[in-house]
Amino acid sequence: MISREILPTFPLCPGVYLMKNAAGRIIYVGKARQLRRRLASYFQPEHRLAPKVRVMMTRVEAVDFLCTSTEKEALLLEASLIKKHRPKYNIVLRDDKQYVLFCLSRHHTFPALRLTRKVLRDGSVYFGPFTSALSARETKRVIDRLFPLRKCRDTVFSNRTRPCLQYHIGRCLGPCCLPVSEEEYRQVVRQVELFLSGKSVELLAGLRTEMMRLSDALDFEGAARLRDSIRALRETVERQAAVLSDDRDLDVIGVHGNENGAALAIVFVRQGRIIDGQTFWFPGAAVETPEEEASLTDSFLMQYYTPERFIPARIVTAFGCQDPALEEALADMRGGKVSVVKARGDQERRLVDIATANARAHATQQRRTATTPVELARALGVAGEVERIECVDASHIQGEGMRVGMVVFVDGREEKSAYRLYTFPELEGTSDDYLALVSFVARRLASGPPWPDLLLIDGGKGQLGAVERTLAEKGGEGIALAAIAKGESRRAGELGDLIFRPGRKNPLALKPGSPEMLLLQHIRDTAHRFVISRLRRHKRSAQLASELDSLPGVGPRTARLLWEHFDSVEAMIRAGVDELSALPGIGVKKAVALHSALQSLHKST
To answer: For residue 447, with 0-12 CB atoms within 10 Å meaning exposed, 13-18 middle and 19 or more buried, which class applies?
Structure first.
């Protein structure tokens, strides 16, 4: 344990400090306006320290620091180091993926609507975010059907010589080749903006006015098209209740904690309407005081927002911003002013209540299944703590495509970037799961650290024994092992699952439905889904590739052309008629036939 005597060695400048354990691993990263004074707060009498800090300080053996010029630089560096090292005692945002946005580019005369996960400061208009990419794609299909914007990419648009199929079926005005006025196209763009902004009443009113104008001008065909669009919009537009009296964009944060950790919910309000939200769980985090909740919120905001993510001008929390440097850093990312404020007025307070209710529900759900690394280690009879779990599952399809999939969980959360799929061409046709696991162990040891605190095997005592012997032969005895096998029902996920450990004849007496058993079952099921999905994808790709040459109209030249422009057969199937017709030597007629053949191939598999 580190002593107070080291304090005079630290400077008074702003910066970041890194606390390390006996193994040299970073377990906490913090930032300070004055490093020496901030670190002095950790060396108070134990009764004045928070429980989490008391436990952490017993494990700190060294403290490094990095000086910065300003407090804002320290804040940015702290967030970067937390993302890189994922220290045990920090609030670590593991689900930091970029969500889907709709983008309308303003730099093009005839802009197209596209889906993106990055915000660029190029003057484009963004709508979202949407946590479900599937829902966003479904919404785009509706927009493509209702509004005749161009669908092709800029490169295809600039090289077209005749309108594509989208024009011929009435879903594009054809500005690539036809004399479409900019004003006519801008009118369609405005309609799309109204649709995505949730202003369905204003949009429908404008469409009705235009329909009556066309009818009075005896353009009954155009009036009928608008009539059908109005009918489709009424059936499609979700009736979102306005939660603000104006059209502001807000992100609203709510927090709720229990004895196992803290949940945080973020609610996205766009144009005065709630469009989506997301919840996060931070095991072991304490939010018993307003200061702790504000600290958690500030740390979350600094890790969650990036220059590529949409950042609203106003972020509402229960206590507002405790650190002026946070608003400065967010403003730099956004390229404009950002205010992190306490809820103001009944409407914003009600939104914070909604976010807090979502966080409370998520925390309650986590309480039922939560287990700590210490509790899991105790239940399994493993020394120390079980933080990092690697689970492996060997699988094949009738002896073909032997694969071993490995999934990784850290503190009960998926670490998808660490997932691995191991292939063994030399085992084709053997159906030997034992040999596949033995081969996996050799390759896993060769890949090096980080080592798991527990290696979980989807299998019984036989698979466990094979892995144990191989680890002993190759110098991996320090890795704790366990196997999870199906019980008498032989159905995955039921409460009859059995947990085996080396050196024991009988399974562990883990109670069915206990948090420890539920976690191990969830990890095993995740590994099984991972390897099976990759197996099916491989089989399907091989089947599609072999059948491509047999499609009508696809000879060696066309097949070679397709492979030069697409990475896989799946990408060919996803391509639209306009994308296919843009390929050299493939016109609209051949593209339609080729698209139809690819779709029939997709349905047959």
So the answer is: exposed
Residue with tokens 């094949």: 396
Nearest to 270 by CA among 134, 102, 116: 102
Tell me the two tokens of residue 1: 């344990």
Q: Which amino acid is at 531?
A: V
List, for residues 208-220, the tens digit of each pLDDT value.
787 888 788 888 8
Judge contact between 280 and 307, C-beta under 8 A: no
Q: How many CB atoms lie within 10 A of CB 85?
A: 16
Whether residue 206 is predicted with pLDDT greater than 60 in this model: the reply is yes
Query: What pLDDT sits at residue 548?
Result: 60
Nearest-angstrom CA–CA distance, 446 and 277: 42
- Measured in whole angstroms, the distance separating CA 578 from the mean position of its chain's CA atoms is 30
pTM exceeds cut of 0.70: no
Q: Which pLDDT belongs to residue 427?
A: 77
Minimum mean pLDDT range among 280-294, 327-341, 355-369, 551-565: 551-565
The mean pLDDT value for 356-365 works out to 90
- DSSP assigned state of 259: T
φ, ψ for residue 118, nearest 5 deg: -130, 140
**451 three-class SS:** coil
The secondary structure element, H or E, covering residue 325 is helix 324-334
pLDDT tens for each residue of 548-564 = 655 666 666 677 677 66
532 Cβ contact partners less than 8 Å away, ≥ 6 residues apart: 395
Whether the Cβ atoms of residue 517 and residue 388 lie closer than 8 Å to each other: no
> Can you tell me the distance from the alpha carbon of 308 to that of 196, in angstroms, rounded to the nearest whole number?
20
Residue 377 CA to residue 268 CA, distance in Å, equals 39
DSSP E strands: which ranges in 117-234? Answer: 125-130
Residue count of the chain, please give it. Answer: 605
Are the beta carbons of 224 and 138 closer than 8 angstroms? Answer: no
Q: Give the span between the Cα atoms of 406 and 531, in whole angstroms.
A: 8
Is residue 480 helix, strand or coil? coil
Question: What is the Cα–Cα distance from 107 to 141, expressed in whole angstroms?
Answer: 24
**Encoding tokens for residue 303?**
């890790």
Q: Which amino acid is at 293?
A: E
- pLDDT of 544 above 60: no
CB 300 within 8 A of CB 264: yes
Whose tokens are 């020496």? That residue is 36
DSSP code, position 391: E
Q: Predicted confidence band at 492 (pLDDT cuts at 50, 70, 90)?
A: very low
Residue ranges of alpha helices (H) inside 371-417 are 373-380
**Rounded distance, CA 44 to CA 65, Å?**
20
Rounded distance, CA 281 to CA 336, Å? 30
Better-predicted residue by pLDDT, 223 or 78: 78
Phi, psi dihedrals of residue 21, rounded to the nearest 5°: -90, -175
